[in-house]
Amino acid sequence: xxxxxxxxxxxxxxGVLLAARGLARRWRQGRPVRVDWVAGLAAVPRRYLVDVHxxxxxxxxxxxxxxxxxxxLLAGSVALMLAVLPAxxxxxxxxxxxxVLFAAALWGAILVRRRxxxxxxxxxxxxxxxxxxxxxxxxxxGALLLAxxxxxxxxxxxxxxxxxxxxxxxxxxxxLLVQFARGPMRHAFAGTVWLAAHARPGRFGGGRDTALxxxxxxxxxxxxxxxxxxxxxxxxxxxxxIQCGRCEQACPAxxxxxxxxxxxLIQDLVAATRGGSAAEPYSGSPAPNAPPVACRGSMxxxxxxxxxxxxxxxxxxxxxxxxxxxxxxxxxxxxxxIVDLRxxxxxxxxxxxxxxxxxxRRMRDSAxxxxxxxxxxxxxxxxxxxxxxxxxxxxxxxxxxxxxxxDLRYGRTLQALVRLMRLAGLRFAILGEAETxxxxxxxxxxxxxxxxxxxxxxxxxxxxxxxxRIVTADPHxxxxxxxxYPALGGHWTVQHHTALLDELVTxxxxxxxxxxLPPVAYHDPCYLGRYNGEIAAPRRLLDAAxxxxxxxxxxxxxxxxxxxxxxxxxxxxxxxxxxxxxxxxQADAAGAAIVAVGCPGCTAMLEGVPAPRPEVRDIAELxxxxxxxx
Amino acid sequence: xxxxxxxxVLLSAGIDPVSGRPxxxxxxxxxxxxxxxxxxxxxxxxxxxxxxVLREYAGYGLADIxxxxxxxxxxxxxxxxxxxxxxxxxxxxxxxxLAGRRASGGMDSGLLPYAVAERLGxxxxxxxxxxxxxxxxxxxxxxxxxxxxPRGTRRAARxxxxxxxxxxxxxxxxxxxxxxxxxxxxxxxxPSGLAEPSAPVTETVExxxxxxxxxxxxxxxxxxxxxxxxxxxxxxxxxxAIIDHLRALGVLPxxxxx
Lengths: 630, 258
Ligand code: SF4
Ligand code: SF4
Fold this sequence. Notes:
The structure holds 2 protein chains of 2 kinds. Chain A is mostly helical. Chain A has 4 domains: 2-187, no CATH class; 223-351, Fumarate Reductase Iron-sulfur Protein, Chain B, domain 2; 363-502, Rossmann fold (3-Layer(aba) Sandwich), CATH 3.40.50; 504-626. Chain A has helices at 2-27, 37-56, 60-82, 86-89, 92-115, 132-152, 163-181, 187-196, 232-240, 246-250, 252-255, 262-273, 312-316, 323-327, 334-349, 354-366, 408-423, 440-444, 448-463, 475-484, 497-506, 536-545, 579-589, 600-607, 619-626; strands spanning 397-400, 428-430, 469-472, 494-496, 520-522, 549-550, 594-597, 615-618. The mean pLDDT of chain B is 86. Chain B has helices at 26-37, 54-59, 75-85, 112-120, 179-182, 218-221, 235-249; strands at 6-10, 41-47, 64-69, 96-100, 124-133, 142-148, 154-160, 163-167, 186-191. Chain B is of the alpha/beta class. Chain B has a 9-stranded mixed sheet with strand order 7-6-5-8-4-1-2-3-9, with helices on both faces. Chain B has 2 domains: 6-191, Rossmann fold (3-Layer(aba) Sandwich); 216-249, no CATH class. The N and C termini of chain B lie far apart (63 Å). Bound molecules: iron/sulfur cluster (2 copies). One iron/sulfur cluster is lined by residues 241-247, 262-263, 266, 327-330, 332 of chain A. Residues 250-253, 260, 262, 318-324, 334-335, 561 of chain A line the site of one iron/sulfur cluster.
């Protein structure tokens, strides 16, 4: 009987290997990328135990389910395979260990079942998941009974009593193989490969890597039109999705009913690699309000389109906020996938939304998405007489104004910032008419060609001047200048205005007296928080400038987007609600009377919410109000 | 299509009116869109040396661009010559010339499309906002076009090939810009075939002081009924009629001494 169990375990392993080979074959049809396998595989245990579990632990019940299921199943099966050694087969201690491991796996199977009982929560999928606990339970339960039998009858007589558990275990193993080859259990293998070959290894070990990768504009195919245009590692990452729905719950576009569900998007990409409607049907929540599509796809067929897998609106609803990425336990890079698809649509087909097409054309022609004269950017600062840094000039701080400066409301923020910098005695200047668009919007929209055009010009402008650092009140510009220009040869120290002000307050150059204000809540801009990890300085400033500070439920690295990023506002995406309305309701719920912001996009989006609503103030304005002039 | 149209789109090395940077001209982009809407095969024609900005037109769908070398001193003659030469399309003559309706501020001239049409002896329809091939199909083909008029009104017109169309800014036929196509642009240079001017061209340019243009009263700016139709009038009579009309509108001051 012991030998039969050994055969079962080895048979299961062989089946898994075979199925894994099938998966690998499919991935190989993707774009080749070089992978450092030695370092990658060596890092897998750490990445899994530390980084993945850091995400999983945010849902303790999921962690409690996953540890016994995965641990018990894997350790139990490996232990069974070791029973090829006759010495082990005769040992009662050994069988006791096997029994404990499978008991854990059985407990895990029960917990897996409970997740979808009595009803499947909206963020989870049904389909093959519905009989996954049965397969897990049958295999673990059967193996457990057999191990107990071996304990009871040392030497392993072929008792007919053990036939039933044996059949149970064999049936369960068969079910697991199907789950592995065609169903969600493939996440175990795909996830491991993806962890080893992850496109952004810098994310592990508490690091951050959020810059989009430059695109070779001379390549014959730009971006992704079909699944085979993705890097093969990305294809593996799609297969790693376990359909836990955390991305869906975090996605602002989904919450607003804007035709995008990151989970459904990833699953649609998987289905596309498997022949569209021929694949295992997706059974989770769809992209809300998205018109139906034909569900046709293959490795080399277009993915986007009503006659393909994904409706085009889905693509343009994304604000590139990275909330999904932050929540994904499989460390999937949704934004990279979406930008790859957008690049394909924009660069190869010219298929962007009309509003975006107009903005892109203005960026190409006038170096400014609104088509406004570049000299008008500093109009809001006219009364303050900020010096303009000429070519060849030198200063300490270069103040990058950004696109928001054209807006009069945001001009008030910049005025406050300039006043504070003056009070602190800083030497600074602006670029004036020489400041062109940094290219953020073009890049998020997938128009890498226009991004390169604009970035090249901005880098040349900056290189022709001397300064210690760049300060900007626009987190989008901050991200591009700090994180994305280095790949194009532009290296500068770039600081957000809240970091500068925090430095000045901490260093004593500015003294603040907290004012007696109604509760203030800070809304983290995605591009400052999730993209750059800066969540502490703005809060320190607010604590020093305002009386009471409250937190919205979603804040810091898990904050919710205002809806302004990724070209969403100019892409005219239909939805059931507006993202900023949802966000303002959250601020209301937190009891905030003032929402403090640090981004021109957030300012415009949140101020666009109809009254009654909390007041919107930039941190610079609040700090200026609280400053004590000696 | 049995009778595929052959169109020439006149391209200028444009200037963006806001930033003053080299940029394709909006009306010429729309001219490309109109040619596509008419189902025409097209060649871009530029009087002057190949400029990088011309590649951008390829992004809007005009991949084959011919630059006329040595056309600088008489672009009208060079363009007209190239259009009738028969060397642009290998399989036939040009049916249609499309252009923007006015200059964009670069080295281009707003008069050019009209001067080229005059030189060719072809009819020209100005301010075209929309167009389609007239049905039933005829040979030579005819086009049903709509001219944009002030305050959003439109006027229908029918014109037979060969003809020229000057496209208005309100035309909605802006083609998608596809970066990948700009990489495939072919910029050919052809000799203009013009003799070098024996003496340097001395153009007599008259500069006039700025004069405020009187505002037309809005209600009269539309297609008001009435007016006169003069068929083949002597130039003097035509001028007289126009002046009388403008005086009636109050645009021109009454005659001195009245
Ligand atoms: S993409 Fe990630 S977060 Fe979203 S369902 Fe899949 S595994 Fe979960
Ligand atoms: S980046 Fe933000 S908007 Fe885009 S899919 Fe992820 S959560 Fe949704």
